[in-house]
Amino acid sequence: MCGIIAGIKKGNIVQDLIGCLKKLEYRGYDSAGLACFENNRIERYRSVGRVSELEKIVDTKYSNIGIAHTRWATHGKVNELNAHPHLSIKDGFSVCVIHNGIIENYKELKATLIKYGYSFESQTDSEVLAHLLHLERKKFSSLKEALNSVRKKLIGAYALVAICDKDPNTISGTKSSSSLVLGIDRGSHQYFLSSDPNSLSGISTHIVFIEELELICLNGSEFTIYDENLNKINRDLTKLDFASDKISRGEYASFMQKEIHEQPNAIAMTLENFFDENSLTPILFGNDAPKIFEEVEQIIIIACGTSYHAGLVAKYWIEELAKVHVSVEIASEFRYRKSVLKNKTLMIGISQSGETADTLAALKLARKLGLEWIFGICNVQESTLIRICNLSFITRAGLEIGVASTKAFTTQLASLFVFALTLAKTKNHINTQNERNFLKQLRHLPNAVASILNGEMSVKNWIKYFESKQNVLFLGRGIHYPIAMEGALKLKEISYIHAEAYAAGELKHGPLALIDESMPIIAIAPNDDLVNKLKNNLEEVKARGGRLFIIADQGFELREDSCTKIITLGDHAGFLSPILHVIPLQLLAYHVANSKGNDVDKPRNLAKSVTVE
Ligand code: M6R
Fold this sequence. Notes:
CATH topology of the largest domain: Glutamine Phosphoribosylpyrophosphate, subunit 1, domain 1
Shape: globular
Strand content: 15-25%
Radius of gyration: 26 Å
Helix content: 25-40%
Structural class: alpha/beta
CATH architecture of the largest domain: 4-Layer Sandwich
Distance between the termini: 11 Å
Largest sheet: 8 strands, antiparallel
CATH class of the largest domain: Alpha Beta
Number of helices: 19
Bound molecules: 5-amino-5-deoxy-1-O-phosphono-D-mannitol
Number of strands: 25
């Protein structure tokens, strides 16, 4: 989604801004732009497509103050006029803004601004911000005061950063429901504002998260944070510990491929604290966790996309092991439903980024409705999600750049399994021997994932059966039904092949009508209690000429033939089986998309972090 970077330094900042925009590329975007002071005038440059196009345009520019943006279209087409920064020039001075989020009342504001004589060149909601700020700057004596006045007129979500040529050494920003972070390197006298702390690696030593409705001013080599009444606030600096070399593909052709192969290590890192005997203790989830785990009577899991699938898997684990009822909901649905929340409910928000607008809104709603226990599972310690939760667990997958989530998913699953075990232990549903056995299985998990990755070649042999297909059906049963859903999501988002997942028992209630020799069916077939039921479902498919592609465990009884291909993993891994069975599905989606020539890291129309509704 859109990315913001702005900065001030003693030397030329233009190349720093371009470098940061490149670090924001992973979030997904379709155009980019930059504005900076040149000879006390604001100059603006924009281009459609990659940041490298913008880089060519600004290559020789010199400025020590600038703002830059990557746009992911929401209002208005992908074109240069709709790209940020948006500029308002009138009455002898200019104001220039970059914006993430959506201004819901932009039509009303636009109508008023037109009456004041402002003319609009774009179809965006963001352009109103430039003209509105220009109008307010005429009334107030500083950019800061003007921005504060603008803020009060806005409905919607925003991180907003601005410059004005009446305030030549100043950058001002504010935010509501959208992320904005200050990066500081006092040694090099450089200060940045960004929507994503990852972009600040290598140029900032410390960061400060700007909180709701606060206002930040960078002025020369100083920064000041104000509350909504423009009182100055002192904030602690957090040391930034990203190494600048972390964002590299290394030997891999894409970030997604690298991230798939990082899973053994990512899982090991995430589980590091749980590899010892007696390590299942609620305190690792937060100081209040022991009490909450004892008292909780039901759980609601909220998430989107792949994180939602992790929640669906966790429902099986938590209900079977800890005997606590779990419902799992898509955040964008929950936030607009009139739900009834009982006391003693724990709400769990799962999000790789911790910035997904729908997930955050759903959790905030739950808080507003009186839920006190909110638990976040997230891959980013500094995220908004973690800051609004009272219990938390950080997956240690490392930065995930590929839009298609892989290592974040398997580390979420590993974390959720540990949570289910810890809850079960607190509620006396597992004994010491069970606990030891589960911990032993967890210790082996990174190796088990690595050995499936070693079998990548057998997945590659399937590419030819899928690359020319329009439709693929995924089947699973029980805890592997959400894994089938995740396989379908992976395939559709990067290969652009239409894919759907069904619980195999549902086949004869409708989708069986789709089966013929042109329809590949991928079945997740672990050797669990449901394997014989699944085999019956697969026989129904075979009888109708369907082409079967089966991810099985050792001991699976169907044999390969001209219409049936089987990849066999190791022995059935019990509760941890979903974490293993998803790996071949990730590899398949990756290789099929790659062989079609798609940009697997940045699939069309998608963004890494969905920070608007
Ligand atoms: O950052 P989050 O985990 O909250 O993101 C949720 C979804 O947007 C995300 O999982 C999305 O579905 C991925 N592209 C899936 O690969």
